[in-house]
Design a protein that fits this description.
Blueprint: E1 6-11, E2 14-19, H1 30-45, E3 51-56, E4 61-63, H2 68-72, H3 76-94, E5 100-104, E6 107-109, H4 111-117, E7 121-125, E8 129-131, H5 145-153, H6 155-164, E9 168-169, H7 170-175, E10 181-183, H8 188-200, H9 204-217, H10 222-237, H11 240-250
Parallel strand pairs: 2-3, 3-5, 4-6, 5-7, 6-8, 7-10
Antiparallel strand pairs: 1-2, 8-9
Helix pairs in contact: 1-3, 4-5, 5-6, 9-10
Bound molecules: 4-(N,N-dimethylamino)cinnamoyl-COA.
């Protein structure tokens, strides 16, 4: 299906999803969320896709937050449903069976930072700006930001950012451990595609297993997490990829993974 508020491109097993409302700095409204929800289902069902990249259309913003125009017209109950909708969709993004990279190419404010935080990791342009400014609108983050930011950068840094509503630039987000890499604005997509390509070339079953184990183990105690890893390790050993990978090593050649979920 075709979308109006996002663009979904698929090339060589790598999907790139653009938030596409550049005139509103890609702000998240209900229509965009509905399309994002459908696009994530499509990405999950299409097993030829190995990595998903999220970025913003235009040169200025990843996502400048929830659509304040739409938000200002909502009743508290509509606000509750909107917040729940965003939480569910970002949880779906976080739990996708394939790796996801946020390529943050500009403003990632409020819901924009929350979208990026729901990805597996973030690469940022040197022009990127992060922040959870909801407090200055008389609100609090409503799409999981209070939880994901605190888990990633620690409670105290998250409190400082959320209580003040101050934005931070890419280099500070790097120092906080919020982003993995800062790139020049021009080379951001090139760097992201390089990393995505490297991941896409690995064994498909192992890639998905590693994602699942880290995702499910993150909120478990160490022993439970290791047990989850244990079971997944056994399953990956039974895959065609594992047979090919180990044979290739012993035969001193490069593995030729078939990319089948077997
Ligand atoms: N919503 C709607 N339109 C937006 C927007 C947004 N978040 N951000 C920017 N725009 C629009 C601007 O209104 C402007 O439209 P026109 O005037 O051209 O029609 C256009 O995008 C270009 O923006 P600017 O002219 O302002 O561009 P500048 O370069 O001067 O400034 C800026 C860029 C990112 C610093 C500025 O646009 C800005 O401060 N934007 C708002 C950032 C922000 O506060 N975002 C909201 C974060 S809070 C909840 C649900 C969700 C949330 C919370 C609770 N519940 C249901 C309870 C989450 C809320 C958030 O995301």
């Amino acid at each position: 299906m075709s979308f109006e508020n996002i663009i979904l491109e698929i090339n060589d097993g790598i999907a790139t999803l653009f938030f596409n409302r550049p005139k509103a700095l890609n702000a998240l409204n209900n229509a965009l969320f509905d399309e994002l929800d459908q696009a994530l289902d499509q990405v999950e069902e299409n097993t030829s896709i190995r990595v998903l990249i999220l970025t913003g259309a235009g040169d200025k913003a990843f996502v400048a937050g929830a659509d304040i125009v739409e938000l200002s017209r909502m009743s508290p109950l509509q606000g509750k449903y909107f917040s729940r909708k965003g939480q569910k969709i970002f949880a779906k993004l976080e739990a996708l069976p394939i790796p996801t990279i946020a390529a943050v190419n500009g403003y990632a404010l409020g819901g924009g930072s929350e979208a990026a935080l729901a990805c597996d990791f973030i690469y940022a342009s040197e022009k990127a700006v992060f922040g959870l400014p909801e407090i200055s609108l008389g609100l609090i983050p409503g799409f999981g930001g209070t939880q994901r930011l605190a888990r990633l950068v620690g409670k105290n840094r998250a409190k400082e950012l959320i209580f003040t509503g101050q934005n931070i630039k890419a280099d500070q987000a790097l120092e906080y451990g919020m982003v993995n890499r800062v790139c020049s604005h021009e080379s951001l997509m090139e760097e992201v595609l390089k990393t995505a390509g490297m991941m896409a070339s690995r064994g498909k079953v192992a890639l998905r297993s590693a994602k699942e184990v880290i995702h499910h183990g993150a909120n478990a105690d160490l022993e439970t997490g290791c047990r989850i890893e244990n079971d997944a390790f056994g399953l990956t050993m039974a895959s065609e990829d594992a047979e090919e990978g180990t044979s290739a090593f012993l035969e001193k050649r490069k593995p030729a993974f078939k990319g089948e979920l077997k």
